Amino acid sequence: MQSKAWPYEEARKLLKRWPDGKPDGQPVIFETGYGPSGLPHIGTFNEVLRTTFVRRAFEELTGAPSRLIAFSDDMDGLRKVPDNVPNAELLHANLGKPLTRIPDPFGSHDSFAAHNNAMLRSFLDRFGFDYDFFSATECYRAGRFDDVIRQVLRNWDGVMGVMLPTLREERRRTYSPVLPISPTSGIVLQVPVEVVDAEAGIIAFEDEGQRIEQSALGGHAKLQWKVDWAARWVALGVDYEMAGKDLIDSVVQSGKIARILGGRPPEGFNYEMFLDEKGEKISKSKGNGLSLEEWLRYGSEESLAFYIYREPRKAKSLHIGVIPRAVDEYWQFRANYPKQPLEQKLGNPVHHIHAGKVPKQLLPLTYGLLLNLVSLPGLHDRDTAWKFVQRYAPGTSPASDAELDQLIGLAVNYARDFVVPNLKRRPPTAEEAAALRDLDSELAKLPADADAETIQHLVFEVGKQHFGKDNLRSWFQALYETLLGSSQGPRMGSFIALYGLDNSRRLIEEALA
């Protein structure tokens, strides 16, 4: 109740919303929305995970039942063809139609929406989320939204009164809270609509020069975006939904409409957007964000959760280059957790990632150190890397240390794809060469099983002799650039202990050759 961790702060909003619990023991409803017009990326997954953090915090505080709805807006008309899908001409031929009525350009599912929904659900299932998947198309067709559509028709002027002041003059002339589905073309029409009979759900509109009267119920029409959002909150009884900073105005307008429809807007907060490596907002249609599969080729699921948890109100870069640090920071926070007092534990991201059941296993070395190891010639495979790791950390094995085994595999993937192609060892300067020769001489005096701390002390002493105590940074930069071919690198004592004294001395010999 006192923790300042953001999931608890959000959960306490729901305690104020329902101080005596939801009536009749009903579950508190959390919702996340997803637009399946492009391939899923981490930005879409982000909402489900962050909402789950709040849901877990709420359950931890109250023990009350809850439910998470992952809602797909798959009845939306396709407005433009994403850049990152095959068979673009197939999508071009079906622009304007509901996503569930457009053939799948990948050829694996009944529709484009079904393909993209399946991609999202497979990842959510893999991550172990507890959620109920809702399809907008299914909700409309099954009549689940019929009552709230009638409310929109009954309160037409009130809804228009919220929306029209927010629109440009040109848009006002054609705006309608209800978007009929053309009975001839199947396109979601953006045309003026007349309410003929609110109770019966009958509307009239013009389609290809003809006046059409048809029902707005049962999937023959859908609601315009902000009205649709409000109607969904009311129809499904949503209590909590967060949204990106770019939707602040939409949240306000949908909240007003929800009240007009007789409902209560959900609690929630606005998070900052993810940016690509150029500082631009990631987009499904541009395909400039990371895919879920890309992160998991190079980083663990827990590291992704860790990155998403932290600083939700701060814009963060989301690209391949952030993965190694996210992995290592996750493990640092996990290592700190057991010895922290309760208040700090509740604010530790791993508490929320693991729902309070943080695994006790720790790693004997970092992802960054592994990257340096598997980037060296002849070490670009998991089995070879394991031989070095087992010498460095006796008693470990792929069978007994599954997380370490996974980490080695991820490091191998990252090194092959991004590190090795860019490595270029430079020759040392005369001053650096003299220091390397002295380092080699000192390493030759050490026993084969010298530990990382002993080696690190030796490296420091050689560096101080040649570069001075205040210029050790230049010494370590020289080690990274001449021995590893990189501008930055690991703690050298740990690296030499992992790679082995003889192998490390060979690196020095090659640099001096």
TrEMBL record:
UniProt keyword annotation of ATP-binding present: yes
Keyword Chloroplast: no
Protein name in the entry: Lysine--tRNA ligase
This protein's UniProt keywords: Aminoacyl-tRNA synthetase, ATP-binding, Cytoplasm, Ligase, Nucleotide-binding, Protein biosynthesis
Motif mapping: 'KMSKS' region: 281-285
Stored PANTHER family: LYSINE--TRNA LIGASE
Binding site for ATP: 284
EC number(s) from the headed UniProt entry: 6.1.1.6
Compartmental location: Cytoplasm
HAMAP family, per the entry: Lys_tRNA_synth_class1
PROSITE patterns referenced in this protein's UniProt entry, alphabetically: AA_TRNA_LIGASE_I
